[in-house]
Write a structure and sequence with these properties.
The chain has 422 residues and is of the alpha+beta class. The protein has two domains: 16-171 and 230-319, BirA Bifunctional Protein, domain 2; 331-421, 3-Layer(aba) Sandwich (Rossmann fold). It is 38% helix and 21% strand. The chain contains 15 helices and 16 strands. Strands 1-5-6-11-10-9-7-8 form an eight-stranded mixed beta sheet, with helices on both faces. A five-stranded mixed beta sheet has the order 13-12-14-15-16, sandwiched between helices. Helix 12 (338-353) links the parallel strand 12 and strand 13. Helix 1 (19-34) runs antiparallel to helix 5 and helix 5 (139-156) runs parallel beside helix 9 (232-248). The protein is elongated, with a radius of gyration of 28 Å. The chain binds adenosine-5'-triphosphate and magnesium ion.
């Protein structure tokens, strides 16, 4: 029996047809981040498992059931494919003492890995663009992140379809007191808890609020609210964030049930959500995590950040028809005959020296079949070379996208035409 080789379930190939969309997105993102003074970082895809356990929290969906963890058989270490980028970014900032002279604005992008049930907008390897501002305390940075994300949606043409939800998780003390109230409340309603909730009741009751189980919605809706436990500092911070959003004209909704799936957050948390992607509606999420740097062994430093799900945004772009048209080369070089093929190589390189995009036909074939390829390549011109042209040091230039005569030119002449015509 022959078995065909396939990619791992939930892990996607990016095919050439997807290229223009990804490139467009990535170029837009780079330019946008540049405009806010963020600098790129790249960290390894694999980290010690302990990093994610410490940063994300033992009793979270990610650490409990979504991580790709394995033992490095050469030395027995437990390693994990990164499920998100903040932990690695903070680990690297501490390891390389990046905060020695003050706060840093950082970003990264790349694949993340979570063992989830694959569906549209939910994969086992997916991509995030993450932004972290390390070493800044004020609500001004929270606001910068909200304003900049709003700008990105607008630039991508998605502004109409994505809306903002915010919440405040307050201080560690507020969460501790809220936690006691939640435990008491859920204990009083034991019979209505599902298995997940029972398990989390004493370890991470806040996460029960994040349940997607419809049967528990009413119970969760009526639970004590963290918002009612916030201290003055947290309230002032949250008020400043809301005021800033109003000043900037960015609509938002306060969602008291927004708790985020990772333990490191405090104060402001937010999600950008859409109705266009079914239950995979969160396209970007983040908030403040003032305790994480110290928790991972660094000198205490406040911080905030967010990550966006690239695939989800790309689905939105393609469903909204916001996919850029594929871009063809300036010229496709057709060549038949041995002398022609030698001259074609030289012609193509000469035109590239002149800054043009040139595809040289490979693999032989008749003029007719090569011209078909030239057309399919979306090239603006076919550059045709037979043995006669080669002997004369000339090429025949034929426009493929516009009306016009085929012309015989030497290489400098062809270069000049290709550079001016469009
Ligand atoms: P969800 O509630 O959808 O599971 P999450 O809270 O686990 O999301 P985060 O850890 O905050 O997600 O990651 C930030 C963003 O990354 C999400 O808002 C989403 O856009 C994207 N994302 C998360 N998990 C996946 C996945 N398995 N496949 C594709 N994108 C994902
Ligand atoms: Mg998740």
């Amino acid at each position: 029996m022959s078995t065909s080789l396939r990619a791992v379930r939930g892990m996607n190939d990016l095919l050439p047809a997807d290229g223009p969309l990804w490139s467009h997105f990535e170029a837009t993102v780079r330019d946008w981040l540049d405009g806010y003074g963020y600098r790129e970082m790249r960290t390894p895809i694999v980290e010690h498992t302990g990093l994610f356990k410490r940063a994300i929290g033992e009793v979270t969906d990610i650490v409990e059931k979504e991580m790709y963890t394995f033992v490095d058989e050469l030395n027995g270490e437990s390693l994990t494919l990164r499920p998100e980028g903040t932990a690695s970014c903070v680990r690297a900032a501490i390891e390389h003492n990046l905060l020695f002279d003050g706060g840093k604005r950082l970003w990264y992008s790349g694949p993340m890995f979570r063992h989830e049930r694959p569906q549209k907008g939910r994969y086992r390897q997916f991509h995030q663009v993450g932004v972290e501002a390390l070493g800044f305390a004020g609500p001004d940075l929270d606001l910068e992140h909200l304003l900049m994300t709003a700008r990105l949606w607008k630039r991508l043409g998605l502004g109409e379809h994505i809306r903002l939800e915010i919440n405040s998780l307050g201080s560690a003390e507020s969460r501790a007191s809220h936690r006691q109230k939640l435990i008491a409340y859920f204990e009083a309603h034991q019979d209505q808890l599902d298995e997940d909730a029972k398990r989390r009741l004493h370890s991470n009751p806040l996460r029960i609020l994040d349940t997607k189980n419809p049967a528990m919605q009413a119970l969760v809706e009526a639970a004590p609210r963290l918002m009612d436990q916030l201290d003055d500092t947290a309230l002032a911070h949250f008020a400043a964030v809301k005021q800033g959003l109003e000043d900037a004209g960015i609509p938002y909704r306060v969602n008291p049930r927004l708790v985020r799936g990772l333990d490191y957050y405090n104060l402001t948390v937010f999600e950008w959500v859409t109705d266009k992607l079914g239950s995979q509606g969160t396209v970007c999420a983040g908030g403040r995590y003032d305790g994480l740097v110290a928790q991972l062994g660094g000198k205490p430093a406040p911080a905030c950040g967010f990550a966006m799900g690239v695939e989800r945004l790309l689905v939105m772009l393609s469903e909204a028809g916001l996919v850029p048209a594929p871009d063809g080369p300036d010229a496709y070089v057709v060549n038949v005959g041995e002398a022609a093929s030698r001259f074609a190589l030289k012609a193509a390189e000469t035109l590239r020296d002149g800054g043009l995009k040139v595809v040289l036909h490979g693999g032989g074939g008749s003029f007719k079949s090569q011209m078909k390829k030239a057309d399919a390549s979306l090239a603006r011109f076919a550059l045709i070379i037979g043995d006669d042209e080669a002997a004369a040091g000339q090429v025949s230039l034929k426009p493929l996208r516009a009306e016009g005569e085929q012309r015989k030119l030497d290489l400098p002449g062809a270069l000049a035409v290709l550079k001016t015509a469009n």
